[in-house]
Design goal:
single chain, alpha+beta, 4-stranded mixed beta sheet, 3 helices
Amino acid sequence: MKRIIVDYKKLTPEILSLLVDKYPDGYDDDQVISFKNARNETVEAVEVRTDDTVYLVKVSTRLENTMANYDEDDYDDSDLNEPIVEIPEKSAEEEDTEEEI
């Protein structure tokens, strides 16, 4: 099984969805894993698993806010593997158009 450390900047909607499913009310301190990285820095992360990969997502305020505001409808299928920081936000006009369809 692969183990991947993911920073907020590399977080994809797919991984974010897994996080929100696993931690719908946010994560507690006892769910945070602390470890030393290759540079001997202490890293805090939460774990989420797929069939073949264990993701350790670094804990940050931005992660907490993103999880709290997550809405699966904000992302297209083509966005699922792109880092969320690189996906342009939809304008209010685009969102209104999609709701009408």
